[in-house]
Amino acid sequence: MSQHLPFPTSRIAVVSITRHGIALAGRVVAALPGARLFAPEKFATEAEAAAPGAAACYAGKTGEQIPILFSNFDGIVAIVSLGAMVRLVAPYLVKKESDPGVVVIDEAGRFVIPMLSGHLGGANALAGTIASALDATPVLTTASDARQTLAVDLLGRELGWTFEASHDEVVRASAAVVNDELVAVVQEAGSPDWWQRHANGRSGPLPGNLVPFARLEDVEPERFGAVLWISHRDEPAELAPRLAGKRVIYRPPVTQ
Q1: Which residue of 12, 59, 85, 119 has the fewest C-beta atoms within 10 A of its own C-beta?
Q2: Measured over all CA atoms, what is the biggest interatomic distance in the chain, rounded to whole angstroms?
């Protein structure tokens, strides 16, 4: 299923290093208007034919292009073996909050694999879009995606929501969601259609371990593995000690 991307398609680079891969890359570029195709200069003719006006050819080793692509693009689609791509990008990884989303496609165009920054970097969403265009199978290994449940770090992103939480709080809340612990979802503000418009394209019912509430004060924090609070309010001082370490606060735009 095609999914909303967290960055414009003009910020996507498609990389291929073989003649047959370049033909497939042309189909990927066609599905992502504004994307650029990068290929070795020995395949310049094939690259221009596959992606007219959108091809850029380079001299030297493909590995030398990786830091350039990391600096200039938010999404990288590589028609390269998964193992080779792991080795190519490894020296340039920093953290998931800033690394680009990287997707790998096999040369036959059968499988689309989010390899890096699946959630925050948008690789999972990008894989879904490409898989739809190629009639391929997206290979999602992120637990929340594989189980079609809520991704704590993406909740409300398409609606302009931001979240406030430490890294440890996000990890704890995410683990609670995918391990079927009870998780309180308290919505006091914002659009109510956040599940249907979820970044991962959820269409089924809300998972049973997510328990909705209308007011934070109605929640007994001790009963829940995590508390996801959607509100414009400041955190109540009397509840802060009981919520410590297990709450994620979402801030919708004040117009919602």
Answers
A1: 59
A2: 68
